[in-house]
User: Fold this.
Amino acid sequence: MAAALRALPTVDPARATLERQGLFPCDAEIARRLSIGADKFRSIVGALEKNGFPPRDALIGRRYWPAVVAFWHRRYGLASLTSPSMIDGEENLDAL
Assistant:
C-alpha cells in the first residue's frame, strides 16, 4: 500500500486551484485554457475586448467562461452550429 501511495503523481496546489475556478476563472486560468501565456493574454486582452471579448463581470470581478467560449465560437463561425437559427414556434402537444 505504501509503495502505491509513493507512485501517485504529485499535484501542484496552485494549478489545482486554477483548475477548480469553474465558471469565473481568473485571467491566468483563461490564458492557460486558451493555450497562451498569461503575459501574452494580458498584452492582447484589450484588443480582444474591443472586438467583443467578454469584459470582467462587475459583481464577480472575473470573466464568465461560457461567454469566453461563445466569443471564440462566433469569431470562427461556429456560433450557428451551437444555437438555433430561428424560433420554430410554440409547442402544441394536442396535435400529436
Q: What stands out?
A: The CA atoms of residues 20 and 29 lie 10 Å apart. The two ends are 61 Å apart (CA to CA).
